[in-house]
Amino acid sequence: MLDEKAVINFANDIVAFYLIRVHWNLITQHWLKSPLRHADVWLTVFYLTFLLVRYRKGAPRSPAKTLPAPSVEEKAAA
Question: Which of 37, 58, 44 is nearest to 16 (CA)?
Answer without folding.
Answer: 44
